[in-house]
Design brief:
The complex is a heterodimer of chains A (325) and B (568). Chain A is of the alpha/beta class and 325 residues long. Chain A has two domains: 150 residues, Rossmann fold; 153 residues, Response regulator (Rossmann fold), CATH 3.40.50.2300. In chain A, 46% of the residues lie in helices and 18% in strands. In chain A, the strands form two sheets. Chain A has a six-stranded parallel beta sheet with strand order 2-1-3-4-5-11. Chain A has a six-stranded mixed beta sheet with strand order 7-6-8-9-10-12, with helices on both faces. In chain A, strand 3, helix 5 and strand 4 form a beta-alpha-beta unit. Chain A starts with a helix and ends in a 7-residue tail after the last helix. Chain B has 568 residues and is of the alpha+beta class. Chain B folds into two domains: 261 residues, PAS domain (Beta-Lactamase), CATH 3.30.450; 231 residues, 2-Layer Sandwich (Heat Shock Protein 90), CATH 3.30.565. In chain B, the strands form four sheets. In chain B, strands 3-2-1-6-5-4 form a six-stranded antiparallel beta sheet. In chain B, helix 8 runs antiparallel to helix 9, helix 9 packs across helix 10 and helix 10 runs parallel beside helix 11. Chain B is rod-shaped. Chain B starts with a helix and ends with a helix. The chains are: A alpha/beta (325), B alpha+beta (568).
Chain lengths: 325, 568
């Protein structure tokens, strides 16, 4: 398998090397596709990718459906293919339609790299992201610590988890990491897994509706920061539940999420460096297009950020407010 | 020439056929006019309807398009949009990396507008160097608008391959050149706005002012091989022409369908009318045909066969049939009666004739002639022979049934002369014609002789004194009156009453009665002229008897012949 991949990589590199774009070394165009335009978490990647593109003297095009949908993503990738971009950096779910369209792009001579959400069987060159299982595990460990600090570790607890879409590989890995951290440590029952379809507004509504109807739930784990873009007063049930003793931890660190943590709504956050993903995606792909050199590993890991009470003030100084919501 | 029932039942002159044709004409004429009017009125109405509907359709589509594009133009008028302005400034300063706040707001705004405005496929901010910020994201394009006015471009495929028309409005001037704001409208939306059909195959297509196709549901906008009806209207906002196409053959097909429907209806109604007409004509003509059959049987078969035919119903024709049936029976009765009367008349004539030509009358007269010759009374013998000859000649009358009164008078004159000589001048006779014109009348022969004979043999001869017989002829009110009077023995009252009873028919006569001659004359007169005519009798015992015979007057022999043939 590894030999086959190496052969394919060499062939692809040779094709790209002799492509007009590479030979001309004129303005390369890199297509980036986040999961959706409506999820602000990707704005870090958008900005860093633009910045990296300016540094490298290439163009970045940023295309995605406003609300996440596999169909919309397929259309966006086909648009890039039709446009004839030089390379693609995409965040996807590992679904058959996605794998098929990535293969079509590769057949057209467009190298594809994934970031954030991966589709390992699609033939993409490499993946840039976090160790999603580890991120979930770390969040689980933080949850475990808080439960023990509150003396609830010997009580049966109910847990609600929020994810994006069921086929999102990276979200599922985060859920697996989180539940693995709690396994054997707490008597936890998963009451519900909420899927917000990667839509921020829907995530807020789901959280509020669930906690309005089920205020007795004890624990909440967010596999992404979808509902963290609104002020705490905009989520009264969530706020009331958390202040009444509910424990919520999640993944994604950004200024608005930190504000919720400051207000005691969220207890712990594990952040993924989306800016690094955007920048690395452009940088490594352009490097590959120009030199044919691939990263040493198929998985390019970016580090995790942890937000606890101990470093909250420092993080609030580092992160800038987006004010997009 | 005789017509059979079958030959006249369906002939052109038969009542049944005439009824049939009349009803058909009455039914067919209004139906044909109605059908013709219906088809033509509906054709005009349908053409007007198609025209009006097509015009209404294109106007409505043009109006919808105008309203839609005015809405889009309103959305594009964003001169004071803070986020777009800030984004443009950042792009001008090449500070795209700090544009997240504005980019996200613009995306969100554009996404919301797409949600609320069906058919709005994309909104975009386009810079002169090709940089585009649209609801799809952030990218570059080679198709940068160049117009300084509101322009509608396309149709074309947009960034994600959707077929759109693009409304472009200059947004603001910037260091990097003109900035445009544009909206992509899905051609599908235009298709839905133009989704009207004035006919099943008809359609609406849209062209720009130069005639280039903006939208058409068909690959070939107009099929030259087929006749079409087109109506168009202009969209004042876009300058487009909205054209409605209706295939002429569809209108014709609709008309043909209507025609076939109308003709089928007419045919069905006609079939019903024909059935009704045949039924009615059969019903109405049935009594007539039965009457015809009745008359035919009466004419051909006779013998009462026709009377056996049943005639039913209460209508006029049935009543006529009943009257005809009764009339036929009456005719047959009269014919039978007449036949009997004729037989009787012949019998009476023969009897009268036989009675006259009695052998002893002839022998005596011949003996008397011989005696006169022996006595050398030659002149008197000659007169007698002449009288005898006249008597027999007039008796036979060459077989004529009727003779003139003149002849009948001459006949009795000869008879009286002969009898006067036979009885030795024992009586006188006198014949007086008061109205000579009656001598020209015709009458049955041998009516007077029996009466004169009676006057001689039953009146004068039995008496002792000199006898006299007077015969007077005059015109009566209804014909001719003969009066034969004698001054003989007269008739006894009982006998007179008996004779009168016989004459009136109250008493049945028989051959042995002595007044056979009188009754013979009376019956013949009544048979020929009717019951108002005949013999009447006046008599006084010892004074004599007066017999009056009243008959009609035939102007000519054919009168009697006509009556005879009618009776026969």
């Amino acid at each position: 398998m590894r030999h086959l991949r190496a052969v394919l990589t060499v062939i692809l590199a040779a094709c790209l090397l002799f492509s007009p774009a590479v030979w001309a070394d004129d303005l390369l165009t890199i297509g980036l596709m986040p999961r959706s335009l409506g999820n602000p978490i990707f704005l870090d990647a958008f900005e860093s990718a633009q910045q990296k593109a300016q540094e490298l003297g290439v163009r970045v095009e940023w295309l995605a459906p406003y609300d996440f949908s596999t169909e919309g993503q397929v259309i966006a990738i086909e648009s890039f293919i039709e446009r004839g971009v030089d390379g693609l950096v995409v965040s996807v779910n590992d679904e058959p339609e996605i794998r098929a369209v990535i293969r079509r792009a590769i057949e057209k001579g467009i190298p594809v790299v994934t970031f954030d959400g991966d589709s390992p069987e699609s033939g993409r060159l490499f993946h840039i992201g976090i160790d999603n299982f580890k991120a979930g595990w770390e969040a689980g460990q933080a949850m475990l610590k808080i439960v023990r600090e509150r003396g609830l570790d010997n009580e049966p607890l109910s847990l609600v988890m929020m994810s994006g879409v069921p086929d999102a590989l990276h979200h599922n890995q985060r859920l697996e990491g989180f539940t693995a951290a709690l396994e054997g440590q707490l008597e936890v029952t998963v009451a519900e897994i909420l899927h917000n379809q990667d839509i921020v507004d829907l995530a807020v509504i789901q959280v509020e509706d669930y906690l309005q109807n089920n205020p007795e739930v004890d624990l909440f784990f967010f596999a992404g920061g979808w509902p963290f873009y609104v002020p705490s007063d905009a989520m009264p049930y969530f706020k009331g539940w958390a202040l009444a003793g509910g424990i919520a931890v999640g993944i994604d660190v950004f200024y608005d999420a930190l504000l919720l943590q400051r207000d005691g709504i969220l207890q712990y956050l594990v952040g993924q460096d989306m800016a690094a993903m955007g920048a690395l995606g452009v940088e490594l792909l352009v490097n590959y297009l120009r030199t044919g050199v691939l990263p040493p590993e198929e998985f390019v890991e970016v580090g995790l950020t942890y937000a606890s009470r101990d470093n909250l003030d420092e993080l609030l100084r580092i992160y800038e407010p987006w004010l997009v919501k | 020439m005789q017509n059979t029932g079958k030959s006249t039942c369906w002939g052109i002159q038969s009542i049944r056929t005439r009824l049939l044709l009349s009803y058909l004409a009455i039914a067919l004429l209004p139906l044909s006019i109605l059908g013709w009017l219906s088809v033509n009125v509906y054709l005009a109405s349908m053409t007007d309807q198609v025209t009006n509907y097509s015009q209404e359709v294109v106007k409505r589509v043009a109006q919808d398009i105008d309203e839609y594009f005015l809405d889009i133009d309103f959305l594009l008028r964003r001169d004071q949009d803070f986020y777009i302005d800030q984004f443009i400034k950042l792009v001008q300063n090449n500070n795209i990396t700090n544009s997240r706040k504005y980019v996200f707001r613009i995306w969100e705004d554009f996404a919301n507008l797409r949600r609320v405005k069906p058919g709005l496929e994309d909104l975009a901010i386009t810079f002169a160097d090709g940089l585009v910020l649209s609801s799809y994201g952030f990218y570059y394009t080679d198709q940068v608008p160049q117009s300084s006015e509101v322009t509608i471009l396309g149709p074309r495929l947009n960034r994600i391959g959707r077929e759109v028309v693009t409304m472009v409005r200059p947004y603001a001037a910037a260091d990097r050149g003109q900035v445009y704001i544009s909206a992509d409208i899905a051609v599908e939306r235009l298709a839905s706005m133009a989704d009207f059909k004035a006919s099943p195959r008809g359609y609406v297509y849209i062209t720009d002012a130069e005639g280039r196709i903006i939208f058409s549901p068909h690959q070939d906008v107009v099929d030259d091989s087929e006749a079409i009806l087109t109506h168009s209207a202009e969209s004042s906002v876009t300058g487009w022409q909205i054209v409605s196409v209706v295939y002429a053959d569809e209108v014709e097909a609709e008309l043909a369908y209507l025609k076939s429907l109308t003709y089928t209806a007419i045919a069905l109604v006609l079939a019903g009318v024909c059935f009704l007409v045949v039924f009615l004509s059969h019903t109405f003509s049935k009594p007539i045909r039965r009457l015809q059959e009745f008359a035919r049987k009466a004419n051909l078969e006779g013998d009462g066969a026709a009377e056996d035919l049943p005639i039913r119903g209460q209508d006029e024709i049935a009543q006529l049939g009943m009257d005809l049936k009764r009339m036929l029976a009456r005719i047959r009765e009269l014919m039978s009666q007449n036949l009997q009367e004729q037989k009787l008349l012949r019998k009476l004539e023969i009897e009268s004739l036989t009675n006259q030509i009695k052998p002893h009358f002839l022998y005596n007269t011949l003996d008397m002639i011989i005696g006169l010759l022996e006595q050398e009374q030659t002149d008197q013998a000659i007169h007698l022979i002449e009288a005898l000859g006249n008597f027999f000649r007039l008796s036979l009358s060459r077989g004529q049934e009727v003779v003139q009164v003149r002849n009948e008078i001459e006949h009795i004159r000869s008879y009286l002369y002969i009898q006067q000589l036979r009885h030795g001048q024992g009586y006188q006779y006198h014949i007086q014609v008061l109205d000579p014109e009656v001598l020209e009348c015709y009458m049955p022969r041998l009516l007077l002789q029996p009466l004169v004979e009676n006057a001689i043999f039953h009146g004068i001869l039995p008496s002792d004194g000199p006898g006299r017989v007077d015969v007077v002829v005059r015109r009566s009110n209804s014909g001719v009156e003969f009066t034969i009077s004698d001054n003989g023995v007269g008739i006894q009252p009982e006998r007179l009453a008996q004779i009168r009873s016989l004459l009136s028919g109250e008493t049945e006569a028989n051959d042995d009665m002595p007044c056979f001659g009188l009754l013979n004359v009376h019956k013949r007169a009544q048979l020929v002229f009717g019951p108002d005519y005949g013999v009447s009798l006046e008599s006084e015992p010892g004074q004599g008897t007066t017999v009056t015979l009243e008959i009609g007057c035939f102007e000519q022999t054919t009168d009697f012949d006509i009556k005879e043939s009618a009776l026969g």
